[in-house]
Amino acid sequence: MTTAQQYALKHANRFRSELHELLRIPSVSTDKDYAAECKKAAEWTANQLASIGLSAEVIPTGRHPLVYAEWMGAGPDEPTVLIYGHYDVQPASKEDGWDTEPFEPVERDGKIWGRGTTDDKGQFFAHVKAVESLLQAEGRLPVNVKFIIEGEEESGGESIAKFVHDHPDRLAADVCVISDGSMANKGIPVIVYALRGITAFEVTVYGPKQDLHSGMFGGTVHNPAQALAEIISKLHKEDGTVAVPGFYDDVRILGDNERTELEKVPYTRQAWEADTGAPEPWGESDYTIQERIGARPTLEINGMASGYWGNGVKAIVPEKAWAKISCRLVADQDPATISKLCQDYIMAIAPTTVRVEIKQFAVGTSSPQVDIDTPMMQAAIRAYEKGWGAAPVFKREGGSLPIVGDFQKVLQIPVILMGFGLNTDGLHGPNEHMHIDMFHKGIDTSIVFLNEVAAL
Ligand code: BES
Ligand code: ZN
């Protein structure tokens, strides 16, 4: 054990109580009512980074502030590691099915429970504590370190994208490490080499000018809820594929070698059942579950609403119906192109008995792939071997991290996606948690990673 790892072990309880402070701030980026909380989380993070010896600042943006911090004391001959994370979280309230208050973290059963524990406060904080441990135990870091922590990841991340394009010099580095993902199980760490992209829009179907008496007008007015259901029913074919013409045109074909590699990711049908609670799998039967999640695009209805949902009967023809729709994309699909294909198709199949409006959301990100044959990747592999205690497997991830593509394109550096969480940690859902031992192993892994980058 290195002296930095000893320091981390000795201060483990304090590290977690500091994390609790950050978890108590409801920094929900998608809801503008929480803007002040996002600012508070940014300030807390900057103070934390300053308190461990970095020069840190809160950078205002058009929306939620960025946090930037650096320690460049290793000198110009040593490499620079850029560490990215996000302090913003998904919305959460007790009524969503939480056993405890989402913004009052508790430790129970070896886990910390609370919104943002694993996505992503606990994961990026592991790197903060690794840096503190190295600085305190050894008086210096083996490499230069820059932190960029954003507050809009869960809602599109426009501000950081703009910052990266406007100030690439400030973020210049030799490698970027991101811990905002998950591994197959505690014993088998995972390095993600591909993420999916995303695009999202909202469809509103308008019928009559207001809710109508269904006895007086039903059967003469095309019910918007029904019309929307008819449209939605045409978005997929019976075999589970997306019916939008051209949807698959640019999808990169999955090679046989890669399919063989992906089979090594330990994810069974039973694990899928336990994770989802759904009766049985659905989707493209030509692809395994792992392939469907990582390498195939999807079109999802994220929400639908219409009409009356209160107690008892209310016999109406509702005025309108809406649906929120998003597509997960794979290489080489372009988010704007796919959105246009989907929207054109919806407009083409929309009946003339209703009026359809579509609003595109700002989220839109392509699907980055990471080169796995780089020296930096070797450092990451050794970090997991020595810090976590097991060699990682490589997998594709179904989620999206909008900034990864910008880091690759603008900063031209390798990105290492090194998760310290689990798929079962309840990300975006109720009872989100992070395993306490995984938080601490994440700190150890980060310490080893920084040492390994210096040794390259
Ligand atoms: N941490 C997730 C992405 C993720 C999930 C990576 C699971 C690995 C495993 C991230 O915070 C997230 O949820 N991103 C959004 C981005 C979107 C709103 C643009 C996503 O994927 O939905
Ligand atoms: Zn996240």
Protein model, in words:
It is built from 14 helices and 19 strands. By secondary structure, the protein is of the alpha/beta class. The strands form five sheets. An eight-stranded mixed β-sheet has the order 1-2-6-3-7-17-9-16, sandwiched between helices. Strands 12-14-10-15 form a four-stranded antiparallel β-sheet, with helices on one face. Helix 1 packs across helix 4 and helix 12 (375-388) crosses helix 14 (436-455). The longest helix has 22 residues, at 117-138. Bound molecules: ligand BES and zinc ion. Ligand BES binds next to helix 4 and strand 15.
The first-to-last residue Cα distance is: 20 Å
- Backbone CA Rg: 23 Å
CATH class of the largest domain: Alpha Beta
Number of spatially distinct domains = 2
CATH architecture of the largest domain: 3-Layer(aba) Sandwich
Identify the strand order in the major beta sheet. 1-2-6-3-7-17-9-16
Please report which band the strand proportion falls in: under 5%, 5-15%, 15-25%, 25-35%, 35-45% or over 45%: 15-25%
Instruction: Give the cofactors and ligands.
Output: ligand BES, zinc ion
- What's the total count of β strands? 19
Name the descriptors.
456 residues, alpha/beta, Aminopeptidase, Alpha-Beta Plaits, 2 domains, four-stranded antiparallel β-sheet, 14 helices, 19 strands, globular, binds ligand BES, binds zinc ion
Detail the topology: elements first, then pairings.
Blueprint: H1 3-10, H2 12-23, H3 35-51, E1 55-59, E2 66-71, E3 80-86, E4 106-108, E5 111-113, H4 117-138, E6 144-150, H5 158-166, E7 175-178, E8 182-183, E9 190-194, E10 197-206, E11 212-213, H6 214-217, H7 224-233, H8 256-262, H9 269-276, H10 289-295, E12 298-306, E13 316-317, E14 320-329, H11 335-349, E15 355-365, H12 375-388, E16 393-396, H13 403-411, E17 415-418, E18 421-422, E19 433-435, H14 436-455
Helix pairs in contact: 1-4, 1-14, 2-4, 4-14, 5-13, 12-14
The structure holds ligand BES and zinc ion (ZN).
